[in-house]
Amino acid sequence: MSLWERTAEGRRATAWMAAAREAPGGGADVEGAAAEGDALDQGTLHRGVSGVDRRPRPMAEEEVAGLRDPMAVVFFHQGRWPMTLEEVLAGLTQAGAVPTQAVYMVGESGQIPPDEAPELPRDIRFAVTRADPGKDPDLLISSDPGSAFLQVAAWDPVAEVFNYYMRISRTWVWTGNSWSALAPESRGQGCFDSHVNGSVVMKELKQPWSNWQSMAASIQLAPDDPVRTSPLFPDVIGAERLELSVRGLVSRWTTARLAAVAGNGAVEHPDRLLRQLFTSTTVNLASTSTQSTTVTPDSRDLVLPMGFWLNADALIDGLGLPVGVEAAPAAPAALYVDSLAAFGFRLVDRTSGFSRQGDGFFAFPVPEAAHEDNDVVRQLVDKGLVPAKFAACALMVDFPNPVFSAARAHLMRYVPTGTVSAATWCTDIAAAIGAAAATLPADSPEGRFTRNWSVPDTAWQAAFAHRVDAYLRHVAARIRTAAGFEDCVRLAESRRRAFKEMRLNEFELTLPVTDIPLDAPRLRMNEDATVTVAT
Asked: To 10 degrees, what angle do helices 333-342 and 482-500 make?
């Protein structure tokens, strides 16, 4: 899903509320405020930034006036307090604000036939965007059909940030803006446990857009499902359109962010930028485009998502490595089918008691490198702030592990936290890594980066592409063997479990579970396509 996620029965509350409850040292007690209901003044916009404000407080008039997004201008500046999604949309239309509307629908149980699981809560949500004609959206709204929850991300063209709002009971609360996501005290708190870098989020960003109504799959509703009675239901369109909007909005915030922190020959907070190169600040979810229940032992080979094998979006599409292997590796369907039984794949919702054997709706769902991380890297390179070679050298450290790489994350210790020279910061970091590598094993992260950095400027693209090609050939051969494919299944489950430890994981049905022991060690892929225990 994107924006913020919840369940009608409160199994996950909302990302914001759960994070506020768990915030070390206390944050804005939005969950407590929700429980108190009318305790907050209904005719005032409140501020409640988790990790900063202990409780929501009324915002001063000048604070509200400083918010210039469509939600603030149309409603809060006028002392208007819409209580439902329909009231928000009607108010915007009446004001002639951001008139172009698109409606999307998502639900992690949406592809499970209702008659097969009548006890399963459907948790269907609408995501609505509003935009000026011909432009990317300025307003994104997340709600269930009954408006039990109502959350908004709104672009402020003056401050050039997304403002985040939520309705608690009958009171609206401003929960922070894009910069709040990056500030240490509020990072990872409240809504920023999913909007970790300040931008809008759509986990299932690429085809087949798992869990979304799209051209790849339809959400299945019972004939008497109340969703059908919503006036928005006939207007629902495919998530393939939302993908384009989300990509544009991520790029918009990245552009504004870089303009604010890089100028006059200096870069502020370089660690906050380069952690999106060296670490997985968040992830997207990818899968094959094949429905898992249609795969039989006699089916054609299953093409597994390229993002499982490496960060192709960054290395190939972004940095232009001339990789010769054009198609993602494919595995025999029989091996995939055998693995479902051998590892006990199933979908589980413990609250309702639902359990069904098999994979997710689309086969082989796995985490992959986040688009928002890659967009920061792409723009840093395009704007000349980071040399393409530097970015490639970092990504090629442990490149068979595009997410959750401890080796790449280890190199963050060499990234300064204070303001640095835009002309030399990357070469200075490379020099610091190289100096450390001189006293460390050759296979250390420092040693691997330094070997990459030593490749001549005229040869690095070809050299790195050669390594990627060799690796993909090894993968293509190994996953055609029972042992090799089994290793990849175990690796995929290892990465899924790493994702499930993130607060971004908000619904049990997002990913399947298996019989692999919960205490199984984390795994990593090697350049020869063998899978070993991560160290």
From this structure: 60
Q: What pLDDT was estimated at residue 175?
A: 98
> In this structure, are residues 430 and 290 in contact, taking their beta carbons and an 8 Å threshold?
no
Please answer whether residues 219 and 80 qualify as being in contact, where contact means their C-beta atoms are separated by less than 8 angstroms. Answer: no
Q: What is the C-alpha to C-alpha distance for residues 416 and 442, in angstroms, rounded to an integer?
A: 24
Q: How far is CA 244 from the centre of its chain?
A: 15
In 378-411, which positions are buried (b, 16+ CB within 10 angstroms) versus exposed (e)?
Answer: bbbbeeebbebbbbbbbbbbbbbbbbbbebbbbb
Instruction: Collect all residues with Cβ–Cβ distance below 8 Å to 77 and sequence separation of at least 6.
Output: 64, 65, 67
Contact status, residue 295 vs residue 361, Cβ threshold 8 Å? no
Q: Average pLDDT for residues 205-219, to the nearest whole number?
A: 98
Whole-model pTM over 0.90: yes
Look-up of token digits 């489950």: 493
Mean of per-residue pLDDT scores for the chain: 93
- Position 11 scores a pLDDT of 36
Residue type, 363: A
Q: Which residues lie below 8 Å from residue 251, measured CB to CB, with a gap of 6+?
A: 375, 379
Q: How many beta carbons lie within 10 A of that of residue 268, not counting itself?
A: 13
In one-letter notation, the amino acid at residue 532 is T
Residue with tokens 């506020």: 20
Interval 16-43: pLDDT, tens:
333 333 333 344 455 455 445 457 888 9
